[in-house]
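debug: dumping io for the single-chain case to check the tokenizer round-trip. Nothing else runs in this session.
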Amino acid sequence: MSTTAVGTFTFRPLDPLKDAELLHGWVTHPKAAFWMMQDAKLEDVERAYMDIAADEHHHALLGLDRDGEPAFLMEKYDPAHRELVGLYEPRPGDVGMHFLTPATDRPVHGFTRSVITAVLAHLFEDPAARRVVVEPDVSNKAVHALNEAVGFVPEREIQKPEKKALLSFCTREQFAAATGVAV
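debug: decoded output
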């Protein structure tokens, strides 16, 4: 469980079949353009998350609000085996991360920052996690600002097959210094 300024979030493994309809609405919304699933059909979402569920190096979790309702999506992966293979030199304790907050008609100020804070706190609960790695699209300025707010430091731009990305890192010490959250 991770407590943040907006509330308390818990995490549970994503169920690719039960949660596919919910996720489909999230990943195909125009707000989720950087998720690159705008034209996905329900079956595409099921298949993508079934593949993740079967992958020992990639995991999808739902972040739940204090009422136990799905509030956001989080993926964690081993960058030595997924996403960044051959694009940087991974270190022991590196963990890759993606997160998605769904579009809403009733935005709550600070919600997305609370989500990324909870996601990093959750990742750093694992004593083996020493550094979180992200690779957002270079044009996603909003997520760059969020990443910086929780301690990420950009290293360089990299070219992935699907996008030009900003490779950034956050150590547990940088996260604690930026957020005041002890991990």
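debug: round-trip ok. The chain has one domain: 2-179.
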